[in-house]
Design brief:
Elements (H helix, E strand, L loop, with lengths): L4 H9 L5 H18 L4 H16 L2 H4 L4 H9 L4 H13 L3 H5 L3 H8 L1 H12 L4 H8 L6 H11 L4 H13 L1 H12 L2 H4 L12 H18 L4 H15 L4 H8 L1 H16 L3 H4 L2 H31 L18 H13 L6 H26 L1
Length: about 375
Amino acid sequence: MIIGEGFLSFVTGGPFPGSYIVAFIIGAFFVYMGIAKKWEPLLLVPIGFCMMTVNLFPPLFAESTGLFSQIYAVGIATEVLPLLIFIGLGAMTDFGPVIANPKTLLLGAAAQFGVYFVFVMALLVGFTLPEAASIGIIGGADGPTTVYLTAKLAPHLLAATAPAAYSYMALVPLIQPPVIRALTTKSERAIYMKPQLREVSQREKILFPIIAATVIIWLVPMAAPLVGCFMFGNLLRECGVTERLAKTASEAFMDILVILLGISIGGSMTADNFLKPQTVLVFVLGIVAFATATAFGVVMGKIMNLFSQEKINPMIGAAGVSAVPMSARVVQILGQQANPRNFLLMHAMGPNVAGVIGTMVAAGMFLHFLR
């Protein structure tokens, strides 16, 4: 076989002429955005490069013995990779802001209405119940949860939902500000919140993952794998006697898992898997889910102010999507633009990490009713 013959044979035999070239270019675009724009580079770079590679030589995924297909079968099809990633995420998460201000849990919960809103929209445009759930969960802006739920309910959509979820996490600074500004006045964005939260004791931080896991798993048993791994990682961080394990889980272990996730997702994005009309629709619905989740979080913040003596800045509700910590940083920037005295980052981190829990609960609910 001459050089390039394998590639050219796939170009003419794909879903439409030149499809593998188009997919190769899209992969190159992901790499460019990761490097030049620094949009989620830890994932967009490996996903994009592996997408380029597999569209040069599709047997890497098409054949059961191919490198990408084997990693996908072990890591994604079995749901092992996203669950292990949650251990690392738990070890990186500080629940202090939530414990210090528990009402921010309501903001994280409110943002999940975007998930259910787009779930209904997906049904109305013709997707099945499992497919609609896999699309709606993109609104949580939680990549591992999206991968986990899609792998269980609609694995044929994984090549669309996974890059959509991670792309929108990277696009937080572009998507959220217009939504926030449209729903708030300048005076609302300027509401001052004291920068200092109450001090949270180590005992509280140790008890939180144990109590949270117990309550959530009791209420939503199908969320147990996600919640259990996440809270286990957080307990390693907070208990004070497993520093080595917490450091490994949040650094080297997490890095390895992210590489494998990027390889498996990017390696599955061949032209025949990725370049479909429904992929475009998934990306459109995904951005609607993300924008709607942002909107519901802000609206909940405004509603809470109607019944609260101590006003909160409603923008922190936008951080209820679980894009940690990007959405909290967006709130911080907008808050300082409206009022230079404002320092909203720690306040926004409360609903931010609460959103992670909310998205896992939403995924558990979908699994309970649809699987």
